Amino acid sequence: MGLRERKKAQTHAALSWAAVRLTVERGFDKVKVEDIAEAAGVSPRTFNNYFSSKAEAIAFRHLDRCLRVADEVRERSGEPLWDAITGSVLRQFAPDAEAIAHPPVADAERWTEGVRVMVAEPALRGEMLRAGATAEAEIAAAVAERTGNDLEQDLYPHLVASAVMGAVNTAIAHHLRTDAAVPVSRLLTDALARITAGLSTP
Amino acid sequence: MGLRERKKAQTHAALSWAAVRLTVERGFDKVKVEDIAEAAGVSPRTFNNYFSSKAEAIAFRHLDRCLRVADEVRERSGEPLWDAITGSVLRQFAPDAEAIAHPPVADAERWTEGVRVMVAEPALRGEMLRAGATAEAEIAAAVAERTGNDLEQDLYPHLVASAVMGAVNTAIAHHLRTDAAVPVSRLLTDALARITAGLSTP
DNA sequence: TAAAAAATTGCGGGCCCCGCACATTTGCGG
DNA sequence: CCGCAAATGTGCGGGGCCCGCAATTTTTTA
Fold this sequence. Notes:
2 copies of one chain form a homodimer. The first copy, chain A, is an all-alpha fold and 202 residues long. Chain A has a domain at 59-197: Orthogonal Bundle (Tetracycline Repressor, domain 2). In chain A, 76% of the residues lie in helices and 0% in strands. The longest helix of chain A is centred in the middle third of the chain and has 26 residues, at 122-147. The termini of chain A are far apart. Chain A binds chain B through residues 52, 82, 122, 125-127, 129-130, 132-133, 147, 149, 152-153, 155-156, 158-160, 162-163, 165-167, 169-171, 173-174, 177-178, 187, 190-191, 194-200, 202, and chain B through 52, 55, 82, 122, 125-127, 129-130, 132-133, 147, 149, 152-153, 155-156, 158-160, 162-163, 165-167, 169-171, 173-174, 177-178, 187, 190-191, 194-200, 202. The structure holds a DNA duplex (30 and 30 nucleotides). Chains A, B: This is TetR family transcriptional regulator.
């Protein structure tokens, strides 16, 4: 990867990180595109060269994580499908590598509360879900690749992808709803296990 | 219901129908809020008293259908859970009661093609998914009511709701992707059956 | 090092959405 | 049947988002 692409990726990350941080701190509609651009050190106009909306910039990190699940499922063709899926999901969502990779936030309490407010924002929920749907398509393709299904004609890979993203969303929502009484990893494994086993019996 | 509420419901329906029709005919970004308001016979300002965005107006009919599924699941407490779910879903989505209830479109070919373009619109996909998520919460509540689960603490009702909406979305997407070779009702029953049975085996 | 390709920026404009105040309509009790 | 309170519709104005376009700066390539 040349210097050019690396800089682009950096700007992408800087913008999306700034968008998330400011939104968590102040709330969605108290952050102007201008603020985000300034925090990332680019002009306001440049912001929209990278993201087509403020919401998209915020959802970008979520999209990225979900897409990595698809990639990992593709790579792990050695183990059984559902082991690969569960493993990939846990890797991306369990220890919340996010929090570690970035400048750790001073007040963790305030931060998670801000996140709660953020994900409740209607405008963002739509964009988050859209990110999930985009990733879902990739996961479906990865599954079809592994199982030999036809991505166009067969329902199975799409059902799997949809169920996986549904389980992930449900687990995360539960985690945010209850106060982290149960570790996310357990919620994720539980949810995925129940999906594979079938939901007919409570 | 008084005359007041009935008029409100009428305006709601008129606006959302106009929004859908114009969007299908011309494409999302060639329809201005002004156009929709005019087609519904109200002022542009009034539009935003009913819907907080153009996309929301278009997704409203989808939301309505999904919410009716939740209602019906609540009502049908006589039969087993999954029978109630499948039945409710089929009732709402199978014969596409939509097309019958409204002034039938002249050129059905052109219409479905327009719908295909419409649902591909990024701005709308987010809003559609958001509608699905809203309905999902209601369905989860309905399921919890029936099974005696705790809506806050238990994962099961949320998993069921998520899987159901996922199945519906997947089936509809499949229907739009392939050219109606298989009836929607069959796709829906198939998808739901596979969900309940478990997805572990292709 | 010069030319080509690509990214950033400023400007201008269209549109969306909302708050506010005012007009209009509706429901209700006398 | 009537007038009044409450709810709804409307016009105006503004803030903000997003994009097309063209000029400018930066990076790559020859």
